[in-house]
Amino acid sequence: MALIVQKFGGTSVGDIERIKNVANIVKKTVSRGHKVVLVVSAMAGETNRLVALTNQIQEIPDEREYDVVVASGEQVAIGLVAMALKEKGLKAKSYLGFQVPIITDNMHSRAKIKKIETKKLKEDIKKGIIPVIAGFQGVTEDGDITTLGRGGSDTSAVAIAAALKADVCEIYTDVEGVYTTDPRICESARLIDKISYEEMLEMANLGAKVMHLRAVEIGMLYGIPIHVRSSFNDREGTWIIKEEKMEKSEVTAVTYDKNQAKVTILKVKDRPGIAAKLFKPVSEAGINVDMIVQNVSTGGYTDLTFTVQRTDLKKVVKILEPVVKEIGAEGIVSDDKIAKVSIVGVGMASSPGIAAKMFETLAQNAINIQMISTSEIKISCVIDEKYTELAVRVLHEAFDLGKKKK
Amino acid sequence: MALIVQKFGGTSVGDIERIKNVANIVKKTVSRGHKVVLVVSAMAGETNRLVALTNQIQEIPDEREYDVVVASGEQVAIGLVAMALKEKGLKAKSYLGFQVPIITDNMHSRAKIKKIETKKLKEDIKKGIIPVIAGFQGVTEDGDITTLGRGGSDTSAVAIAAALKADVCEIYTDVEGVYTTDPRICESARLIDKISYEEMLEMANLGAKVMHLRAVEIGMLYGIPIHVRSSFNDREGTWIIKEEKMEKSEVTAVTYDKNQAKVTILKVKDRPGIAAKLFKPVSEAGINVDMIVQNVSTGGYTDLTFTVQRTDLKKVVKILEPVVKEIGAEGIVSDDKIAKVSIVGVGMASSPGIAAKMFETLAQNAINIQMISTSEIKISCVIDEKYTELAVRVLHEAFDLGKKKK
């Protein structure tokens, strides 16, 4: 008998029939002798509808009130799911963030969980009552409603699993699990049965949209196995677990991210403090700089290139134009027709030649590499956006990630 | 400078434009030097949508979870209204039931307010912050969400006005105020400028749908003047106030209620305990019996006639059929083609001849009276449903309630 936290995303509770299906999944789990705690997202489309309402009132919505409005989506979902469970003869009780309570800091719309009170939940579990908890939301110590940012229900679920010392956190979604690459652009993409937290973190970072980053971090920190699986069938999906429990693969997956843009500051004087002058105003505007490349200095000048999310490009250029003048650089150029293609794998560090093979594969296909960035478990290349799908497919093939040929 | 509680109903916050209009009304009130506290309903149609969702999951929805789902409508509205106020440069802060808190009993879906904590609200008012409070909802002492029943936002507003000792509670709605009768069926219906709590209670009881009954009761109990007015213009509406502050009118209004049905138990033995045997199971089923008429006993037998809401008729007949057999009555007959037409006025008790005039007026128009019920301030007649509109018009005319002829 295990204690299982099951999280159902927006598409899994998207309509009345899907909500009834959730009740079936829970009933099956209970009938196998397990204890279950549910975490539920808003019905698909609901959060978007609520966000749109706030935008119609204020261009930049007041953050406290934004959270009040958007948190209501999960409230509807947990009530309906609790009813559906009762209709199947199960005992259930819905919980809003403030009722658990799930205490967060007061960074509205991107709050972080500070503490989860487990007393009421444990009492329910003991009595055979299934707690149905609103994902995505919490409450500050002052009683204000907060939300954790888009996709935050994953984080709620893993954090609740950690607080309850659950045996596993199951993330039910509309895909089968985590794939070696995006199946929409690569036919031979294969479902990964096991992946390490570290690899999953890199993948989430590099553009794979399966799981919320914080959720994986919390899972890693507390050692909670996360099982990403489909709510449409009973098959096993992908287990996200500790590295030592799995065979180390050289390369586990290929990811890509088209939400990328490149900025180059031309002929920057190569002296201390210049980089800080450039990047401080950017980070103060809340913009993440990803890769940074500085060419070898010639004649005391260098070109400085970095990437940002494409949606931030205009803002970055606007911020840097006066700075560029101030530091006496020649100018600023940008390119938003780029993409980042990456390979991820825990075995990479101990396998020399992986990087070379990646570069070679791209070269053989006449794909020029504009920037390179590496970590212990990933290698990323910035390329011309139009080659994205080709690059993904040839790398997937080169590292033999596909389904076994029949 | 007055402290004004302003309540905006569903149509007054029905879309983004209407919500912005609410902000204009509030701004105008503030600019006149008043302090304002808002109570807001869900956007028009939203509560119906949520109720429909619950009905799709459970025929009789679990009451605790029903409240969780339907209370979310007000949550969206208060966030949006608070944003709209901020957009106009006002200071505002939304409050859910649990945040005030508004403590209720635990009768889910029809909870009664037990206590309203005013500390936070008073602090806000002192700082010039406008509290925007969710109507319709509260929280039990155990932290469960409750709702007060349909139309409950009126009750929230008047109760908050009472707790804050406000000078007036303004109920903004989509009509101009309270009319002498339904303007849809009587052209000459006139807006009433002042009406007593007692008259308003009778009117609400007798089918006028302007205000929630409990709201008027609380207003009367705490002496809070209630001003029912339109959110679509700046004109004064109807003041609901203490009787001694107004001229006593003989008849103030004519009301009607078509949601009526009549049940007759034929040839009941006229002995003690029979009425209790009949009405106990009916009241235990939560069904309100309204008028009861017992004919003079002849030969130890009597016919017993009573009215119930039409929507309860089938249930009542089903409950009473076995009882009728048990007590040896001849049978049970029912009629759902009836209506109740009433005249209301605080001056009625001291003006003999009002009842006679009512009966005479109906007789002159060939409208047969089937049942009569009177109180200090109202007289009700049950008539054939098809004469409802005619009866309303001739009574309105007979008691000279209409607009002055030009």
Task: Give the structure's gist in a few sentences.
The structure is a homodimer of 406-residue chains. Chain A is of the alpha/beta class and 406 residues long.
Describe the fold and architecture.
Two copies of one chain form a homodimer. Chain A is 34% helix and 28% strand. Chain A has 406 residues and is of the alpha/beta class. Chain A has two domains: 3-174, Carbamate kinase (3-Layer(aba) Sandwich), CATH 3.40.1160.10; 254-398, VC0802-like, CATH 3.30.2130.10. In chain A, the strands form four sheets. In chain A, strands 3-6-2-1-9-11-12-10 form an eight-stranded mixed sheet, with helices on both faces. A six-stranded antiparallel sheet of chain A has the order 14-15-13-16-18-17. A two-stranded antiparallel ribbon of chain A has the order 4-5. In chain A, helix 6 packs parallel to helix 8 (213-222) and helix 9 (274-284) packs antiparallel against helix 10 (313-326). The longest helix of chain A is centred in the N-terminal third of the chain and has 16 residues, at 16-31. Chain A starts with a strand and ends in an 8-residue tail after the last helix. Chain A binds chain B through residues 16, 19-20, 50, 53-54, 56-58, 61-62, 64-69, 71-73, 75-76, 78-80, 82-84, 86-87, 93-94, 96, 98-99, 143-145, and chain B through 16, 19-20, 50, 53-54, 56-58, 61-62, 64-69, 71-73, 75-76, 78-80, 82-84, 86-87, 93-94, 96, 98-99, 143-145.
